[in-house]
Amino acid sequence: MKLLDTNILLRYFLNDETEMAQRSLLLLERLAKNQEKAELNSLVLFECIFNLHRSYRKSPQEIIELLKPIFELRGLYIENRQIFLIALDFFANYNISFADAFNIAYMQKRDIKEIYSFDTDFDKIKGIKRILP
């Protein structure tokens, strides 16, 4: 098993470095056909989403459109796949940071109803109670 780094996804999504984008595309095609296997960890996905949103000014909806096909690659194991898919929906629909969206998705998956936080964005989500420490 090999690990997929953030720059592979960014070069593919942005196509800003032609040779790197092409090599990334070929790798992703091999993963799609299950000819090769790789793993994508949570930190890499966070870094990718953060960079697309903050550095490259992609909207949450654009980020979802870019990432959804990656989640379907047969040869790619994605750590916390379900949590990420749920988090992407929160990210797009509630105008919150992806980190907050991930925490909300994680809470739902683990049936956690309360969060210690000063962040009022959690107040937007029905079924979650924000508690001041």
TrEMBL record:
InterPro entries linked to this entry: PIN-like_dom_sf (IPR029060), PIN_dom (IPR002716), PINc/VapC_TA (IPR052106)
Stretches assigned to the PIN domain: 3-126
Pfam families: PIN
UniProt protein name: PIN domain-containing protein
